[in-house]
Amino acid sequence: TLYVYQSFTTTHLYPIGQGTRCFVAFDHENRRLVLLKDFWRNWKYDSKYKTYKALECKGVSHVPHALAGEDIAGRFQQTEVLGIKLVHFRLVLDVVGEPLTKCISTHQFAQIISDALQAHYKAYCKAGVLHRDISSGNIIFFKSCGYLIDWECSIKGTGIPPAARTTERTGTWQFMSIKLLEDPDSPHQVRDDLESFFYVMLFMANRYA
């Protein structure tokens, strides 16, 4: 049981996306603040909860721990948009982080990016999970420790790169690799995520530093 007031995000107000709302929630039983994320997930991907638990099981650091996560039951909790089935989902994480824009120095910023890179590296090498949506919004920090979040678009497997999923392209456009933008049929690989990390650093440095 969690107590919430109102979401601190506003993306659910726009007509596109997953209707994501994030809340700072109070866990009364354990007397702590947690993050409650409410959104509509694409049913064909593994749920974020399963991905977070798999990463935790493999000892991947700099990734929040998932405390709970499940599809919401009920006939009105599923829908289909342009052939994509969406399911209402809620996820609870143990970290309520700050965005990169709240960094107080370039040193802190560089350390947070380094932590996120470690999370990406360990997730791929230890758990065989590729993130595929590296962006400025998916890297946060808590007590100066960086975290890589939002594993909704991740895939498993470190072998031969899978083919692109029809015309569907995952990732945040501003930070996607040039290869993926120019070739819609190109599979998403590790090097594409690393290029996205570079664009995150370039974007944040130019805009805020």
Automatic annotation (TrEMBL):
GO molecular function terms attached to this record: ATP binding; protein kinase activity
Entry keyword Transferase: yes
Xref: InterPro entries: Kinase-like_dom_sf, Pkinase_fungal, Prot_kinase_dom
Domain Protein kinase: 1-209
Sequence intervals crossing the membrane: none
Keyword Transferase found: yes
Keywords: Kinase, Transferase
Pfam family, one: Pkinase_fungal
Annotated protein name in UniProt: Kinase-like domain-containing protein
UniProt source species: Rhodocollybia butyracea
